[in-house]
Amino acid sequence: MASQRGEGETTTTPAEPADRERARAIPEAAVARLAVYLRVLSGMADQGVTAVSSEELSQAAGVNAAKLRKDLSYIGSYGTRGVGYDVEVLVSHIERILGLTRNHSVAVVGIGNLGHALANYGGFPGRGFPVTALFDVDADLVGIPVGGIPVNHIDDITAVCLEREVSIGVIATPPPAAQSVCDRLVSAGVQCILNFAPVVLQVPDNVEVRKVDLAVEMQILSFHVARRADEAASVSAGIGPAGNNGLGVDGMVIRP
Amino acid sequence: MASQRGEGETTTTPAEPADRERARAIPEAAVARLAVYLRVLSGMADQGVTAVSSEELSQAAGVNAAKLRKDLSYIGSYGTRGVGYDVEVLVSHIERILGLTRNHSVAVVGIGNLGHALANYGGFPGRGFPVTALFDVDADLVGIPVGGIPVNHIDDITAVCLEREVSIGVIATPPPAAQSVCDRLVSAGVQCILNFAPVVLQVPDNVEVRKVDLAVEMQILSFHVARRADEAASVSAGIGPAGNNGLGVDGMVIRP
DNA sequence: TCGACTTTGTGCATCCGTTCACAAGCGGTA
DNA sequence: TACCGCTTGTGAACGGATGCACAAAGTCGA
Q1: Which CATH architecture has domain A18-97?
Q2: Which residue in A116, A124, A223, A235 has the most chain B C-beta atoms within 10 A of its own C-beta, making it the best mutation to test that interface?
């Protein structure tokens, strides 16, 4: 019965007691940005950069400098006034807060086009997320290794997930199967789900779902295309505001 | 030079004049939800449902009923008090606002694992987004059809995008190539970009970028795993609040 | 040792989005 | 026709996130 993860909290890093209340207080939007900062910082570290100011980092991450400092302040005060931040220090603290000091075993369900792509990443981008199990309904796929991992039958989800202590389930199935797969993952003790299926999943309160919805993304872009067209029409009709939208097609203006 | 899309605004639907100001006022979050409502409504229509109340629709979409009504109010008043909404009517109005009454030609750049998956969708989920061009740097791939469309060399982006009036560019390249590809798309007149590369793109003001970042999604989930572990530790130590988090592993509790 | 300069961390005002609560409006019924 | 119950649409309160501006705090050079 090795499913209740993180029971003993010996997580390599000292784990200061204040972290608990801190972690609970960090707004979700800030968490997402912290992940971005982490990537930028890692890149800097790889290039030998050892120190960085909030100004530099914020530009590289594409956010406001004040917002960046506020985000960092959620996890503690690790900067030096008049100097900036030590890249290594910041990286390790963000990793700690994001829970990246331990590995998170990932299961991918649905080995179609997308499932293949995900499995072949072999450990998700930005290590620490080893894919340890693959599932599909198709009996012909079972046993065949994809990205080095053999595909299991979907009926074995519970057993396999418990055995391999899967923390994160990725749903890459067709829409009709998604809710059923989700239910099975939940009953296997998986509390975090990344859902690629265009379906609104119903889950218990203690399960965290994040969805990646290509159709929605495309439609948001479509909305902006339409809005642009409308604005252009308004402007050319002399209705619109004196906006500074230079709609030049040939311009390759890159913002500094 | 047929690049300035939507010049004449004969968009099949009457296109009420008030729409312009409306579209500009709709918050982005609401736009994303409208896309979700649209999908749910389409599903209902397929099942022969003709009318729906805000309560029903909001449950199916997993949002607050009041929020749903406010979202719908952004696009106009198309409900009937005491009755609800006509499914067909709502579908057509949401489609109109989202600009789905016309097709949006899509180009996918980077035909690796993900690019393959995207190309093979053959017209993105939820029609209206035909993939009309594929690009890659690899000369070995050029000419080979993927999902029925031959791959072009990346150097031909500008010409091909202009010719096929691409409105939306999808970047599925490795990180180092992303910015360069983005620049080329922009100079080809593409104003909407969906970016799968874990890179912060720099673009001019008139270009809309949406990013899908798997690493960030995973790390947000990781954060929640860590937070859970901390909370569990606090609770078992008698520190935490009397939260109702029944961490039962066997429970398959589906919220109504 | 002292002062000038740089950059962090944060209180505060502002803005945007969510939620509540209720009046307005519509269909059905007597 | 007049009433009743139901559901929409929205004004207003609320809460959370964003951006500003500045004090606190450190480094560097004289």
Answers
A1: Orthogonal Bundle (1.10)
A2: A223
